[in-house]
Amino acid sequence: MAAKAQFGSKIGLIAATVGSAVGLGNVWRFPAEAQANGGAAFLLLYIVCVFLLGIPVMLAEFSLGRGQRSDAVGVFKSLAPRSRWWIGGAIAILASYLILSFYMVVAGWTLEYMWQSITGALYSPVAESVSHTGLDALDIQFKTKMEEYILQDMRPLIMTYIMLAINLGILLMGVQKGIEKISNVLMPVLFILLLAFACVALSFPKASEGLEFFLHPDFSKINASVVINALGQAFFSLSLGMGILITYSSYFPKDTRLTRTAVTVSLLDMLVAVMMGMIIFPAVKSFGLNSEGLEGATLVFVTLPEVFAQMPLTQLWSSLFFLLLMVAALTSTISLAEVSIAFMQDRFRMRRTSACLTVILPLFILSTICSLSQGSLSWIKIGGMNIFSLLDTVATNVMLPVASIITCIYIGWFAPKGYLRRELTNHSTIGSRTYPVIMCIIRYVAPVIISIILLGAFF
């Protein structure tokens, strides 16, 4: 069997791992959560939760991947060969694949909107908005466009298939020439675009009012619900429980400093979320849209096009924003797919080409079903949800927390004695003053907090 692939440089390692974490959760979930939960109060809690929960759980996953240099199932089979701990890894792999099946559809939407922005078709009037004026006309126009581009059948499928083909092409090139190389290009592009948009947003007439909401905390807004939401945002924005961090850390060189890497990745991931807040809130405040909900697809595909339509150089800013969004979606889909590809290579001794095809080709069917469940198959309901929403709910709200709880319990209580300490200290070659705190959080704090997040999904 060929030697285990690994990242070729520290910059590439960070770029790829940050790319795996940064996704649409940072772009559209974070602003919506901040708006609904008190702005700066939520931001402060979110930052605390990243350090309290995110980094320790990330280190638990890093220690498994880098230490055993295997996939999310293989790490448990290697450390505990006659046990069933591997089920935790299997849940993570299945969850990541289910997420990938609908996330690829969303990635197709971003590609569609980028193309429509470039051509200007996104900003062409629609008949439904002719009898209205001002913001009402814009709102109707872009809601109609969203139905036109997302809730129908053929066009979303074409864009989904294009994104699948792009993913397959990158993944076939391997870890260094594919994942690492594309991350080294796309991550700087993403941060440059974020910086450009932040500078523009801060020049808007009511930018200070938007920043006031986002950066000046009102602690009276903090309650149990806000805390749980902040915990959930920290958990999901770092891609915990998906097998991604285990898989990518299996490509880390042996001398990688895990704690430093976890802190760097977490800070950069937080930076993306905070910069999105600094873009969104000044924009919606300045253009009279602050009363609108900033939830999910509505924020990205309705509210922000309304902002761009009122700005000079509308097509340019719109095209650049949806390029940013597509970059975030692409790095996420690549990392989600790599989880299953690594599993196929390690467990079934497949060549990389065979593993990539085995993982990607079924998505042409699964993603088609997810896409059509927004259109002609929307009549199919399970528990009151269409197929797209069902997969999202089951994978994100149930499977990811369960996989993380299993990982924390194993590392905290059942891993070989001193295992985590050895990994954090690179077998005693470097110091780790934070080890006792990290182990305490993994053992006692993280399982309880993640369980609260899990239960919060049902109540």
Tell me roughly what share of residues is in helical segments. Answer: over 70%
Q: Count of DSSP E strands?
A: 0
Query: Count of helical segments?
Result: 19
Summed over residues and divided by their number, the pLDDT gives a mean of: 91
Q: Topology as H/E string? A: HHHHHHHHHHHHHHHHHHH
| Rg on CA atoms, Å | 22 Å
Give the termini separation. Answer: 48 Å
> Structural class of the secondary structure composition?
mainly alpha
Shape label: globular
Largest beta-sheet details: none
Q: What is the strand content?
A: under 5%
> Which spans of ≥5 residues are poorly predicted at pLDDT below 50?
none
Explained architecture:
The protein has helices at residues 10-21, 24-36, 40-68, 74-79, 86-119, 134-149, 154-172, 175-201, 207-215, 224-237, 244-249, 258-286, 296-309, 314-348, 352-360, 363-372, 387-414, 419-424, 435-456. The chain has 459 residues and is mainly α. Helix 7 (154-172) runs antiparallel to helix 16 and helix 10 (224-237) packs across helix 19. It is globular, with a radius of gyration of 22 Å.
Give a brief outline of the structure.
This protein has 459 residues and is an all-alpha fold. The protein has 19 helices and no strands.
Characteristic key phrases:
single chain; 459 residues; mainly alpha; 19 helices; 74% helix; globular
Show the helix and strand layout.
Blueprint: H1 10-21, H2 24-36, H3 40-68, H4 74-79, H5 86-119, H6 134-149, H7 154-172, H8 175-201, H9 207-215, H10 224-237, H11 244-249, H12 258-286, H13 296-309, H14 314-348, H15 352-360, H16 363-372, H17 387-414, H18 419-424, H19 435-456
